[in-house]
Amino acid sequence: MQAYFSSWGQEGIVDLKHELEQVLMFISSRFLLGYEVREMMLEEVSSLFHELENGLNFFSFLFPYIPTPTNRRRDKAHIRLKEIFTTTIRSRRSSGRVQEDALQRLMNSKYKDGRSASEAEICGMIIALIFAGKHPSSSTSIWTGAFMLSNTKFLIAAVEEQKHIISKYKNQIGYDAFSEMDTLHRCIKEALRMHTPAQMLARKAHKKFKVQTKEGKEYDIPEGHNIVIPTALNNKLAHVYNDPHAYDPDRFGPGREEDKVGGKYSFTTFGGGRHVCSGMALAYLQIKVIWSHLLRNFELKLISPFPKVDVSKVGQEPKGKVMISYNRRQLQCY
Fold first, then answer.
1. C-alpha to C-alpha distance for 124 and 131, rounded to whole angstroms
2. Contact indicator for 15, 323 with CB cutoff of 8 Å
3. Which residues bind heme (predicted)?
4. For residues 116 and 121, what is the distance between their CA atoms, to the nearest angstrom?
5. Cα three-residue angle 108-285-256, rounded to 5 degrees
6. Which backbone phi and psi does 229 adopt, to 5 degrees?
7. Alpha carbons within 13 A on the beta-carbon side of 100
8. How far apart are alpha carbons 312 and 299 in whole angstroms?
9. Is position 187 annotated in a ligand binding site?
10. Which residues are within 8 A (CB) of 54 and not within 5 positions of it... i.e. 6 or more apart?
11. Strand (E) or helix (H) holding 115
12. CB 294 within 8 A of CB 300
């Protein structure tokens, strides 16, 4: 993290969207990919994943096999990524070299019947893991920054919290410190509520059950039916969230906790129940690491218009560049 942002000058203007996408790719590659990929071909892998992300739009979602230029680039990128990871897997197995990363764990994994995962299966899973670990966090980290830099009240509160953290932990900012960043956590959570990475979730009913509306009307859900949860709509329900279209992280704070008051599954950005997103804690931690560093080391200002949602994408991603100006600083503790 520090190494990446050390390339920034004393002051300047950058595209926050580009910068955070790069940072998240570095973070994801650090714990998912091996030394071979991370140190020797990360730039190529990052570019290939960018092509995969560009292919994640509504048109490609509905017509995934139509040979449009976007789909062709997506498919070529997918093939090249499989080649890179297959070469890495074979190299490790032939040399006996072992690394501490997710790729190695997948290589060592076995199914219940004792069968090892094939190269194709490992490649598919590692691509899915990188995509899941990087793509949603990238979008949310950008929205978090755009909202904070557009709302002075919450930006000041987040900076004050960092001062308190520095006062308590000095330069030893670790997991415990990140766990205490409640203000920053709420800023991230509110960005997730406003612009959820997954606009809907699909589930299958394994047994019949009833659902009840707030008006008391009941509906029967038969066994075997598929259910779609419109996350983007759920997060804006006026009877759950006060002024739902306003950015207000305090709605999750003590005394309000609107997501809990509204019911068990009022906040469904990460799903819920048995199938809640297993990467939820990691997503929050990644974004906290990034924004804690930025708030402690830079004065930031949003200089481009607040980003609009890119309606062509499956997730609620910011459209276009998000330009910010920065000045280096060393945040003083109390």
1. 11
2. yes
3. 277
4. 10
5. 135
6. -105, 110
7. 0
8. 33
9. no
10. 70, 73, 74
11. none
12. yes
CA distances to 218, 249, 251, 258, 266 from 262, rounded to whole Å, are: 18, 16, 12, 6, 6
Q: Are 204 and 226 in contact (CB under 8 A)?
A: yes
Q: Going from the N-terminus, what domains does the chain have, and what CATH number goes with each? A: 2-328 (1.10.630.10)
Alpha-carbon distance 140 to 309, whole Å?
12
Helix 182-194 to helix 152-169 angle, to the nearest 10 degrees?
A: 140
Nearest partner of 33 among 96, 91, 88, judged by Cα: 88
- Unique residue bearing structure tokens 């599954």: 265
Tokens for 322, please give them. Answer: 């998000």
**Which residue type does 165 have?**
I
**Tokens representing 330?**
């060393």
| Residue 52: closest CA among 15, 27, 21, 23 | 21
